[in-house]
């Protein structure tokens, strides 16, 4: 028997969409105003889903305090109120980082949360605005 638990979090961060190999004009054409040189911010909404059996004693799939503490340490403390392009290694052009699209941010958050020890991480869903969101459930080959 398996049950899923989904918990919702939020954080604010800024970014700029621009690939270092492209010219300013190419970036502008590809990313539009998201390529503006001084960046812009989002209030991201993050949904984290974990799954597992219901513990026979506690009646819980995972303790919310454990999940909250883990997400706080691995994601919120890391990403809240930062400029993703400069302050997060995975997105720094100088470190060969990815463009900080919400797709890539979603994958990076999944990678950070995957070691959660008390239940299996199923997926993360990240809302960039009220109109678009992305979901990542890891690579199929690595799922048990
Ligand atoms: Ni944006």
Which characteristics define this entry?
single chain, 144 residues, alpha+beta, Tetrahydropterin Synthase, Chain A, five-stranded mixed β-sheet, elongated, binds nickel (II) ion
Written account of the structure:
The protein has helices at 24-31, 64-79, 84-87, 102-113, and strands at 3-15, 40-52, 82-83, 120-129, 132-136. It is of the alpha+beta class and 144 residues long. It has one domain: 2-Layer Sandwich (Tetrahydropterin Synthase, Chain A). The protein has a five-stranded mixed β-sheet with strand order 3-1-2-4-5. 21% of the residues are buried. The model has no long low-confidence stretch (mean pLDDT 96). Bound molecules: nickel (II) ion (NI). Nickel (II) ion (NI) is lined by residues 15, 34, 40, 42.
Compute the CA-based radius of gyration: 17 Å
Mean pLDDT: 96
What binds here, in terms of ligands, is:
nickel (II) ion
CATH class, please? Alpha Beta
Helix content: 25-40%
> What is the distance, rounded to the nearest whole angstrom, between the alpha carbons of the first and last residues?
15 Å
Structural class of the secondary structure composition? alpha+beta
The strands making up the biggest β-sheet line up spatially as: 3-1-2-4-5
- Looking at the overall shape, the CATH architecture is 2-Layer Sandwich
CATH topology: Tetrahydropterin Synthase, Chain A
Contiguous helical run count = 4
Compressed to H and E, one letter per element, the order equals: EHEHEHHEE
Biggest beta sheet attributes = 5 strands, mixed
Number of strands: 5
The CATH H-level homologous superfamily = 6-pyruvoyl tetrahydropterin synthase/QueD
- Outline, from the CA principal axes? elongated
Low-confidence stretches at least 5 residues in length (pLDDT < 50)? Answer: none
The proportion of strand residues reads 25-35%
Counting structural domains, the number is: 1
């Amino acid at each position: 028997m398996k049950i899923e638990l989904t918990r919702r979090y939020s954080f604010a961060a800024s970014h700029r969409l621009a690939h270092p190999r492209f010219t300013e004009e190419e970036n502008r054409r590809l990313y539009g105003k998201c390529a503006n040189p001084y960046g812009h911010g989002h209030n991201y909404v993050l949904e984290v889903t974990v799954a597992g059996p219901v513990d026979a004693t506690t009646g819980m799939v995972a303790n919310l305090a454990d999940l909250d503490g883990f997400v706080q340490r691995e994601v919120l403390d890391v990403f809240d109120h930062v400029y993703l392009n400069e302050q997060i290694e995975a997105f720094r052009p100088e470190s060969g980082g990815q463009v900080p699209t919400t797709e890539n941010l979603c994958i990076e958050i999944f990678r950070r949360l995957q070691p959660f020890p008390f239940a299996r991480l199923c997926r993360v869903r990240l809302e960039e605005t009220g109109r678009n969101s992305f979901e990542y459930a890891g690579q199929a080959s690595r799922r048990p």
